[in-house]
Amino acid sequence: MPDNSRQAGRRDRPERDRRPVRVVVADDQQVVREGLVALLGLLDGVEVVGAAANGVEALELVAGGAVDTVDVVLMDLRMPVLDGIRATARITAEYPEVAVLVLTTYADDESIALALRAGARGYLTKDAGRVEIGAALQATAAGQSTFDPEVSRKLIAGLTPTPVPRNDGLTARESEVLKLIARGLSNAEIAELLFIGETTVKTHINNTFAKIGARHRAEAVRYAYRHDLAGPLDP
Does domain 162-226 have CATH number 1.10.10.10? Predict the structure, then answer.
C-alpha cells in the first residue's frame, strides 16, 4: 500500500512553484520515447525524471519516485504488458497526486472516454507541438485539464450525450463555473468573464468539487458532460 500521508498538501507547498515539472515519459516505441525525452529536455520548467516502455515500467518509476519526484506521467495508450488505460487507472488510484497526461495517436471516442474514465487529466494527440506539450504539462501539474482541439470538439459535441439524473445541490453560480471549467477556461478567465475575483472563483470551485465529488478538473469535466452541464451559459 502506498503511503498517501506523504501526498497530503504536496501541491500546496511553495517549493512546488519554484522547481520544474517532473515528468515520466511512457511510450513503447523507442524512437518516439527518446524523441520525447529530447524534446522535453529543451523546455524551460520541465524535467524528465524517467522513461518507460510500458505501463508496468511507468508504475515502477512512479512508485520508486514515491510521488515526491514525479508530477506528471506523459502516457501513451497502446503499449504492451500493461496498456496506458490500465496504467492510468492504477496511478490515479494509488498515487492521486501524480497526474496523467495522455499523448497518443488515437482520438476516437472510445479511447478518449476510456482515458478520462481512468482518470487522465488531459488528452493530446501526437500532432501536438513542443510548446503545446510543454504548456499542457504545466497546466496538468497545476490541476487543470488540457485537451487537444479535436478532443475538445468531440467532448463539446457530446461524448456522453445522455444526461444522468443529478442531485448535487449546486447553486446557479457554481453551475456556471462548472460549465466554464468544462469549456477549458482558467481561473483567471472565469473571473474575468463572470466579473468576480479569482479568490471567489477558487471558492466556487472548491465548493463545486466537494458537492460533485471531484478531485481535480478532469473529473469535473467528466461530471459536467455526464450530467449535461457543459453547454453554453444561460443568457
Answer: yes
Q: Which CATH architecture has domain 4-156?
A: 3-Layer(aba) Sandwich (3.40)
State pLDDT tens for residues 149-169: 778 777 656 544 445 566 789
Region of residue 25 (phi > 0: left; psi between -120 and 50: alpha; otherwise: beta)? beta
C-alpha cell at 131: 510548446
Q: How far apart are CA 105 and CA 155, in angstroms?
A: 17
Q: 97 in helix, strand or coil?
A: coil
Cell of 48: 524528465
What is the spatial distance between Cα 220 and Cα 181, in angstroms, rounded to a whole number?
Answer: 8
Q: Is 124 exposed, middle or buried (0-12, 13-18, 19+ CB in 10 A)?
A: buried
Q: What is the chain's alpha carbon radius of gyration, rounded to the nearest angstrom?
A: 17
Q: Are 143 and 202 in contact (CB under 8 A)?
A: no
What's the pLDDT at 166?
66
| pTM of this prediction exceeds 0.70 | no
According to DSSP, residue 75 is labeled E
| Residue pair 187/148 in contact by the 8 Å Cβ criterion | no
